[in-house]
From TrEMBL:
Residues 761-882 form the F5/8 type C domain. SUPFAM superfamilies: ARM repeat, Cytochrome c, Galactose-binding domain-like, Soluble quinoprotein glucose dehydrogenase. It comes from Spirosoma taeanense. Residues 636-729 form the Cytochrome c domain. Pfam families: Cytochrom_C (PF00034), DUF7133 (PF23500). Gene3D superfamilies: Cytochrome c-like domain (1.10.760.10), Galactose-binding domain-like (2.60.120.260), Leucine-rich Repeat Variant (1.25.10.10), TolB, C-terminal domain (2.120.10.30). One of its GO terms (molecular function) is heme binding. This is C-type cytochrome. Transmembrane segments: none annotated. Keywords: Heme, Iron, Metal-binding, Signal. Residues 1-20 form the signal peptide. The keyword Signal applies.
Length: 923
């Protein structure tokens, strides 16, 4: 919680009261602070410019109010409203944890808590990116239902985005405004991570902390997904690979049902975002996904009317929310210790309305419509009359019940929406909501007559054969965890056991998990898929179509006829799945098959999916969650490169870029998918294609032995195939131009024979790691509201900006740890929000005005000592988007970018902005 120093407290409370304050629990401390602040609470007035006749402000009560005081967990529990038979109890609360935002269990049932300890500690979101958040781990060692034993697993984090258990004593997480995901491991068993390893990059976004990626999630298909990002990733023996997916349009929450379909939760919409079909098949526009009245919440009377949208969004006279406006956390309940009719129901939180909703998915003709179970009763599954109840995550627990993560916080909107002069800021100050910080509770929901499962999982020490038995467990959490542990172990001794389970078990969920465990182990065989495609249960036939995609993409085309037969399946959902699989696999007869399915089945889902595959609807603006598409010329380049790769390169490097097996665990050639070498500076790959490569690569040898020279091919040919490899084989790197190839060809004309890796590594430009650099600037301003301004932000997704208008002489300087030969400079000059712009609370959905903030003209200088400068690039013209500048500079300790000209004073106040800055040096 927020701490005050002794001088501040002594002045406010007096010496005697100070002693009482320091000994009080967090709730009592907040109450004391509010008590003294309330003595001077003035009557509020409308902010300047506010029109009392506008719907936002009309009938607003501005009288002084007693502060909203936090309740103890026992007091809060009495304020919950649940359907008959349900009970709720706290299992972990402050002061042990602060501001929990999500929980996740490892395969031994230990609970990791994501603690966002800097979220909205005041109404201006000050210090939100300070490194004081943490991930803690908790256990119920005496098995009494309360998590009493905990450790700080990872500390000093900058607003971490997620926590994903990833093996025994290991998690994955990343920080805000960052790009890398790291693996943290406790190697000595003390409950605290002592080892940090790079896991993957190009994973981040920047900006408002509510708009960045979150909830890295392990799907039943063994891929890792997250909100915001339109791709999925997966660890392989040869590195991390990725595949593009549809846009999930989600903010805070990912979960899956018993069939492995992912459900993404929207944020600002207050609604689930994408749930019709698995996201890796792309986006489909489905009308009427929500039943009539779905967007109307029925919270308990909280009286505060503290809604971002103003009085127009307030239900009178109880002061509750009348239209969903914010959502967080989600769960398809898959446990076994609550009533059976809850299984498969979708739950999500609406923390502005102080509710948890129970949603019934109804599938008709292959399309899903969501219904609020308690809408007709004008109620919700879980409500509270305590205005500080903030449900931000729901989780099916190992004990078969459902847990609710309650941030228990005063403010639940980020600082961009609580600025001075807004309606919401007025209500925050009226009730002193900004004073309630540093609390948080985790709750368990149970049902009368159904005791929680007290069996403690021990999967990390269980034998692999015992884990197979867990795939038959009635609680989906146990099945998920057992599958994940087996996939990570790579123990192939259970393949016969899994195959028999997949083909013969009477337990449908067990058969599905056995199938996907085989897929995750790399042990799935075509004959197993083909047998399951003939199974009597259509749900299993769907799983076989999905799992078979892995084999088909790896080059086994024997399944093509089976996919084509599925177009004529007797089940509507199987026909839809056949079309989806055909789309992602680009089957040769896809169009014929889809038309056949549409002719034989008039179901709405078959028609919609078929039409949108054959004639894709125009992509709608994805806002902050979108990604720029390739231009037509770039798409043509990648398509040409695809043909080259499939005709030539795939023989050694594999159809999917994972390398062609050569026996004894060796590969014929290195894996290109997910390769850091391929995604680094493009000169590495260009040199290899032009002149070849032989011998070991970082100590690893390959059966093929030699990559042959392709220098007889044209610059365009080399650029095309490398553009496909860098952008189309689970990689995410820039395309390669023929001009870049020509430059390297000229530069390496004297090369005789293929390279050795050690030789090549020395010749290729390498990225200077930003953490080793000291950066300064003449002017610095944050690129986002509430951001922490720093020149070092130029290296992140957040970015750096001068803030004010571009002026001649403005500079950005880099100091290296030692002298280097700078070879290239890369940065992105994105569109920038117009300086001084503030969102109009009366028009919250109006997008901000953007300006082109690239540097118009600049000089690059270098210096050995920071005093004597030499210009090495003069009058460089910046461009919007990606800027790549080749530099031929002597060894230097300092580099400076200096603007050559000022923008017209009568024009827009356009700043100079940079983000994703990279500096490449040459050995």
């Amino acid at each position: 919680m927020k701490h005050f120093n002794a001088v501040q407290l002594t002045v406010a409370l007096g010496a005697v009261s100070l002693l009482a304050f320091m000994g009080a629990d967090p709730v009592q401390q907040i109450r004391l602070q509010q008590h003294f602040a309330a003595d001077t609470l003035p009557r509020l007035t409308l902010p300047e410019g506010a029109n009392p006749d506008d719907p936002d402000w009309k009938d607003i009560d501005l009288e002084p109010k007693a502060p909203v005081q936090p309740l103890t967990p026992a007091e809060e529990a009495k304020r919950f409203l649940l359907p008959p038979g349900y009970k709720i109890e706290p299992i972990l609360t402050e002061p042990a944890i602060e501001q929990p935002a999500a929980i996740s269990f490892d395969a031994n049932g230990r609970m990791y808590v994501l603690e966002l300890r800097t979220y909205m500690l005041n109404a201006d979101s000050k210090d939100e990116l300070n490194p004081t958040s943490r991930i803690s781990r908790w256990e119920d060692k005496n098995n009494d239902g309360v998590y009493e034993t905990g450790t700080t697993f990872v500390d000093n984090l900058v607003f971490p985005r997620f926590v994903l258990p990833y093996g025994k004593d290991c998690i994955l997480t990343m920080e805000s405004d960052a790009d890398n995901v790291y693996k943290y491991t406790d190697t000595n068993g003390d409950g605290k991570a002592d080892k940090k390893e790079f896991f993957t990059n190009k994973y981040g976004r920047s900006g408002n902390v509510e708009h960045q990626q979150a909830f890295m999630y392990w799907g039943m298909d063994n891929w890792l997904y997250s909100t915001v990002n339109a791709f999925r990733i997966r660890e392989t023996p040869n590195g991390i690979i990725r595949e593009k997916t549809g846009f999930n349009r989600a903010q805070w929450g990912v979960t899956h049902d018993d069939d492995g379909k992912l459900w993404f939760q929207g944020g600002a919409s207050g609604l689930p975002s994408y749930f019709q079909f698995p996201i890796h098949y792309g986006n489909f526009e489905v009308p009427n996904e929500f039943a009539q009245g779905f967007d109307v919440p029925w919270g308990a009377p909280v009286k505060l009317a503290d809604m971002q949208g103003g009085m127009d969004e307030v239900r009178q006279p109880d002061g509750s929310l009348k239209r969903v406006t914010g959502a967080a956390g989600n769960d398809v309940y898959r446990g076994d210790r609550l009533p059976a009719d809850l299984k498969g129901q979708y739950f999500y939180g609406e923390p502005v309305a102080r509710i948890v909703r129970q949603i019934n998915p109804v599938v008709t003709d292959g399309l899903t419509t969501l219904h609020n179970v308690y809408q007709d009763k004008q109620a919700e599954f879980l409500r509270s009359t305590d205005p500080l109840f903030r449900p931000v995550d729901m989780t099916t627990a190992p004990d078969g019940t459902m847990y609710i993560t309650d941030m228990y916080h005063g403010i639940i909107q980020e600082g961009q929406w609580t600025q001075k002069g807004t309606y919401l800021r007025t209500k925050i100050e009226q009730y002193q909501l900004d004073k309630v910080v540093g609390l948080g509770r985790i709750w368990r929901i149970t049902y009368e007559g159904k005791e929680r499962n007290k069996t403690r999982p021990t999967m990390y020490s269980d034998k692999t054969a015992a884990l197979v038995k867990h795939l038959e467990h009635p609680n989906g959490w146990w099945r998920d965890a057992a599958q994940q542990v087996m996939v990570q172990r790579k123990d192939l001794s259970v393949v016969p056991q899994l195959t028999a389970l997949a083909l013969t078990s009477q337990n449908l969920p067990a058969r599905m998990h056995a199938l996907w465990t085989l897929e995750g182990l790399g042990a799935l065989k075509v004959d197993v898929v083909q047998k399951l495609l003939k199974d009597a249960n259509p749900r299993l036939r769907i799983q076989a179509l999905r799992a078979g995609e892995t084999l088909y993409k790896a080059g086994d085309k024997t399944l093509e006829a089976d996919y084509n037969r599925a177009f004529a399946d007797s089940d509507t959902d199987v026909q839809i799945q056949a079309m989806l699989s055909a789309k992602v696999l680009k089957l040769p007869d896809m169009e014929t098959g889809i038309k056949t399915a549409m002719a034989s089945n008039k179901a709405a889902g078959v028609k919609l999916v078929g039409e949108q595959i054959l004639t894709p609807p125009k992509s709608r603006n994805m806002g902050p969650f979108g990604a720029p598409e390739l231009a037509a010329s770039q798409k043509a380049m990648v398509e040409r490169g695809t043909l080259i790769y499939n005709e030539l390169c795939s023989q050694c490097h594999g159809n999917n870029g994972m390398g062609t097996p050569a026996g004894d665990g060796r590969l014929l050639a290195p894996a290109l998918a997910g390769s850091q070498h391929i995604q680094a500076h493009p000169e590495y790959a260009i040199r290899v294609v032009l002149h070849g490569l032989e011998g070991a690569i970082e100590g690893k040898t390959y059966a093929g032995g030699l990559m042959a020279s392709m220098k007889e091919q044209s610059d365009e040919w080399v650029a095309d195939v490398l553009s496909y490899i860098r952008n189309g084989l689970s990689n995410d790197a820039s395309l390669v131009s023929p001009q870049q190839v020509a430059k390297v060809r000229q530069k390496t004309a004297a090369q005789k024979g293929p390279y050795q890796y050690t030789q090549l590594a020395k010749l290729t430009p390498f990225e200077v790691q930003p953490q080793t650099l000291k950066v300064t600037a003449s002017h610095t301003n944050s690129t986002r509201i509430g951001g922490n301004a720093s020149p070092a932000s130029a290296f992140t997704y957040e970015g750096w900006s001068t803030g004010g208008r571009q002026e001649k002489g403005m500079w950005y300087q880099i100091e290296f740890p030692q002298e280097v030969n700078v070879a290239e400079l890369h940065f992105t000059a994105p569109q920038s929000i117009k300086p001084g712009w503030r969102r109009d609370p009366n028009k919250p959905n109006v997008p901000p005005p953007f300006i082109q903030a690239y540097p118009r003209a600049y000089t690059i200088e270098v210096s050995p000592d920071g005093q004597h400068w030499q210009a090495v690039m003069a009058d460089v013209k910046g461009v919007e988007g990606d800027n790549i500048v080749s530099i031929n500079a002597p060894k230097s300790r300092f580099m400076k970018i200096r603007l050559n000209e000022s923008l017209a004073s009568d024009g827009e106040a356009i700043p100079w902005s940079m983000r994703q800055l990279k500096v490449f040096a040459q050995n």
